[in-house]
Structures are given as structure tokens and as C-alpha cells.
Design goal:
This protein has 512 residues and is of the alpha/beta class. Helices cover 34% and strands 22% of the residues. It has 17 helices and 25 strands.
Amino acid sequence: MSATAQHRPIRGESLFDESFAFPAPLRTPAPAAPARVAVVGAGVGGLAAAYELQRRGLAVTVFERTARPGGRIRTWRFWDGTHGELGAMRIPGNHHCTLHYIREFALPTRPFVNANPDALYLLRDTRVRRADVARVVNGYRLAAGEQGDPLTLLDTLLRSAWEGLGEHRRKALLAGDVADPELERLAGTSLWQFARERLSAEAWDLVGHASGLLHYEHASLLEVLVDYFGLFNVDQVELVDGTDALVRAFVAALRPGTLRLATRVTAVRVDGDGVRVHGEQLGAPVEEDFDYLVCAVPAPGLDQIEISPGLPARQRQAIRGMNYASSTKTLLHLRDRPWEYRDGIYGGGSFTDLPIQQVWYPADNAVRVPGTDRLTARDRDRSHRPAVLTAAYLWENNARRFAALPEADRTRVVLSALDKLHPGIVASVDDVVHWTWDEQVGLGGGAFAYLAPGEHARYLAGIGAAHPAPAPRIFFAGEHLSVAHAWIQGALQSALDAVAQVLDRVSLARAA
């Protein structure tokens, strides 16, 4: 998500630091009893699980269906070494599991520019700096109390719900417990329903487009609250060498032969005191035995694996029914950076009501002007060198409609809209890459879990339960099991939970 607002302290904000902390028991890799563990899925969660288990002396094999590790971390590299992010692109400062590994692997970071007053709005055919938002507001028929900065209006709207919960309910929510009647009520309310009770249709159209949240208006309000207050009210960083630097670091830290690419797991069978994995690699059958298994694939991919004995009906329904959001991006490679040397934009994002929705600028040449919220060039010469622009970042219905177009039409739509935002920029474009997460093999069904109204209570309680009870051999991980949906933090946190469960079972087996 990409809503931004000027940060104001929130009562209970430290709850996010507590909720997203790296688990203390795993900080020291105490040796465990010998055991063989299969990990299905080489996304960042699966890689972290394998890394932590191997550090404790367990024998680990990672099966990955595709020809590359990383899952929904996908850094696209162009011929000249420039890169852009087709998946995860930023790390909030309270995502302590993610930051733990960034520090452990000594990966260089720089500030991610989430808000830039010199970036643009293009709404209702009016193009202005975000700092000059009043000129856009005049194009909407707003009530007296709805005038002003739309992001301030959004902040007031969401803050009324968040602070009204009280600390005890916020703690419960971040622990995944929505049994409280008030939490259940908000979980069953969509962002649109909540907004329309408090804003006019015109105000919501303005706020929704200025923040991007219009495209998540059918999501559960609780999803939006966690994202907004826990993730966008803190500083963020990006990895200098691309987000896939984290993936490459995990892979390099694994023992040779751990990772089996292009290997599809089709069935997992618990048999006596072990787990048998069935699958295929390049057409050849695969059949191997393990003591335990960590399944670290998204819910749509998990639904394609036969598990025996079968999962409980409620768990199967949750896996099959959980809502996944759609997301597409278009990256442009340009010979130079007109948005910098013409428009003075260094990092951040511009928001529009055009089909491209959002445009995000590289932050590699951005430096903050001391004592201000403005950014300027780190190196004026760099503005005339090649760069990668995220020229379209689309969500939900907007993303699905865009993805349905032929590739040539997608390119035409993006370039036409971008030329309205930055006239003349198309002359600098020399390559285009479109990416749709709905279409990716093994990840099909959406970009990330994002719950619809009612799904918290219906699905979250049982979807990640270890199997089979009471002596489980199969454990589950993935961002869909965490409260931090759509983020690397969620994948890592759930993977670390699975690691702790495996180690508990290994310890019990040794004591028996």
C-alpha cells in the first residue's frame, strides 16, 4: 500500500515494535537434535526457515516450483545494471524481523522516500505539486469540513477508528485475535462503508485517489488500519542493491545442495514417524522422506498440494477462500531522468486518477534539504544518466483490467498517461517491462493476502494450524498467516513461528 500522511504520534504505536520484534528465543542458534526437514517454497519465508534450521544442525532441503528463489521479491535488472522492483520495494522501520536479517547479512540500505511534497497529483485534469494540493481540492464539491489536504482528512478518518479501539484491542488485533465484538465489527466493515458514513462521495473520491486507497475500498477496515498506522507512520528504507539482495544473501548462506529449483511438490503424506514428499523435477518423479515439513507457499499454491491425512474442513476452506489482492507494475528504463532535471522530483510517488494510478521515482539521487521536508539532487550529473521508473503501480480491479489488455495496449496506456503527468518524458524511454502477479506460476491467485470484510474471524484462527494434531509433522508459513499482510515482515515472522514449532517437536522427540 502507499497511503502517506505527515506522521503524528499514536498512543500504543510501540505495540507495532513489540508485535514485529525478532523472537528472542531464536537469537541464539542453540544446537538441536538431528532431524531432516523439507521446506516447500523458496520465497523469503521458506529461505529464512531453512537458514534458521540449518544453523541449528538440522538437515534441510528446500523445494521450489519455479526456476528462481525469492517468491514475491522480484528485482528486475536491465542491461546496464539499473534495476526496479516488481514486488516488495521498501522496509518500514518497525519491521524488526526483516531488519534483523538486513543487519545480519550487512546489506546496505538507504532511505525510501515515501512522501515528497514536490511530487505530483494529477486529479480531474489538474496537475499540481503535492504541496499545492489546494488547487486540486477546488475541483471537488466538498462540504465545509472536508476542505484541506486530503491526506490530513484520511488521517483523521482512520485515526478515529484506530484510537477508538483502545490499547487492549490493538494488542489483540496485532496478535491475530479478533474475537472482541468491536474488532469483529470493524473486521466486518469495509473501508468504503466506514468512509461513506463520515465523508461525502466527492470527498472519498478525492481522498481515495490522493492516497491510492480508493482501490482497496472493499477491503476489511482492519487491514487498512494495520497498514496505515503500523507501516506508513514510520521511516522506511530500501536495499541499495535491490530487494533481491536479501534473497541472494539467504541462498548464499545455505549449504550447497539445499535448494532444489524447478521442483514441484504435488503431494505430502504423513506416514508413521515421518513425512513423504512427492513431486517432479523437470518431468522426473521426486519422492523423499523427512521428519518434518514447513510449507511456505501462498494459499493459492498450497491449495494445489495434496496433503494426507487431509486438513480439517475449516482449514481447507480458509486456504481456498482467503482473499488475495491483485497488483501489477510497469517499469520503464529511461536514458535520463526528466522528472529530476525538469520537475525537481527526487524520490517519492505521484498519485493520479489515470489508469496508471501511481508513479514511483528512484531514490538513489535523493537527499533531504536540512531543516525541511524537501529533497534535492545528491548529484546533479546523475539526473542525466539512465534510471528505472515505476511508471504504473495498480491494485485490485484496476490491476485486473490492465492485465487483461494485450501487451502493446498496456504500453500505450502507460506511455499516454505518463506523458500527461510528465510531458515529453516518452522521448527518453527505451524499454518497458509489465508484470502481473496474478499470472505467476506457483503464485497465481494474487499478489498478497488482503482480507475482505468478515474473513478475519472466518479464516485466520485455523488457517495456519500445524498438522496433524496432536503430534504435527507439517507446519505452515507465509505472509497470509501474519497480521502484516503483503510485507516481507509477515513472511519472515510466520516462518520464524514455524521454525520454533519444528524445534519444539524435535525437542519433544529427543526427550521421548
